[in-house]
Amino acid sequence: MHPGKILVVDDDLASLKLLTDILTEQGYQVRPADSGELALASVEVQPPELVLLDLFMPRMDGFEVLRRLKAHEKSRVIPVIFLSAATETKQRVAAFKLGAVDFVSKPFQRDELLARVQTHLDLFQLHTQLEQRAAELQSINEKLLRKEVAERKRSEEALRESEQFLKCILEILPIGVWLIDAQKGIVWGNPAGQRIWAGMRPVDIEHFGQYKAWRLDTGQLLAPHEWAGARAIEKGETSLDEELEIECFDGAHKIILNHAVPIRGSDGRVKCAVIVNQDITERKAAENTIRQMAFQDSLTQLPNRRLLLDRLRHAMAACTRSQHHGALLFIDLDHFKALNDALGHDYGDLLLQQVAERLTACVREGDTVARLGGDEFVVMLEDLSENTEEAATQAQVVGEKILAALGQPYWLASHEHHSTPSIGIVLFDDHRETMEKLLKWADLAMYEAKAAGRNTFRFFEGGVHTEQSFNSRNHR
Fold it and tell me: Does CATH number 3.10.20.600 belong to domain 5-126?
């Protein structure tokens, strides 16, 4: 097969250039278009073999471009892959109903994009070749009317070549393809599919339990009749992009992207189903790593500043709805630099890890303990009392608990170490103040605690209900 002709449509010129460069580097013949109108004109002049189409564009969006492509005989068979940062199911469903063959989310993974592009190019080129072969066979059949006996052997040979060609394609595809018979269950799987599962067990639908899988979103184990293949056979359902964790026959666990399409006969009844599996284990691991790096502190595994601010935003919104208070406790370790200077940063890291464990043990499951960096931690308490005095008392109880917990001796390798914290506390109850101000106020209150001799806490007096003074609650 030749490399493939691709039309890339995106009004974002940076994204358009990036896609064009990636695909050109792989040897594809790429034509860029920065609008739906230009894309339609380009297809009219020279139809491509695949279209990568941005979903949201001014004047003419991707949906309208696809409708117009499907309205013309010349372009209706061209496969279209939508590109979009949108992840809503209704938008994906609408795209597939219009005739899109796939959906790549922005920002895209380069290897996933190239795999999807090559797969659909292979299928389109295979479809084109099969149509050409069908035309050839039609010509042969017409000759058979005149030379029925002499040409029969030639016709049968051509058919065998087509079947062998299709079989070769399925065997070299990098994705797993399975065939399920309406009566017998799994009857065939290509080499890629068998590599994914570490083998093959030809079983009927009733015994699909031999293939173990769990839904990635819920962790629920699939029963035999809940498999996409079983639903395709029994209910005629088409399933796309189901993420499953599977247990392979060698005991290994993988994550796959699962698709199932029912195949109907001339009578409209489901005759069989085609199942497609794609191993996305490495991709999901990379996504989890990126997510962890973005939202967790690598040393303590606590939420970092970014995740804390996100949770604080939700907590403030919840306070507005419920009229309950929340509280931020800004915690700084006293004389932490002296430990680093005396014993080194490795011992400082050990202390920070133990502090994180003790702080987590001091709060409720629904509260948040985060590390901002260095020796600075923040505890966010949610769903405190509606009454300001009672909420302050609740925050004070937690502050005293933290003072007691962090004041206990630490064992850092073979060294016993004593450390104390200084804590600043601020209450909040709605969106009247910004998150940055709340953190700043808690930080200021923490410095008041240090000025008062350390190993204590102070409330910020200018926070919630500024007319209320919390000097009476200053500890020690």
Answer: no
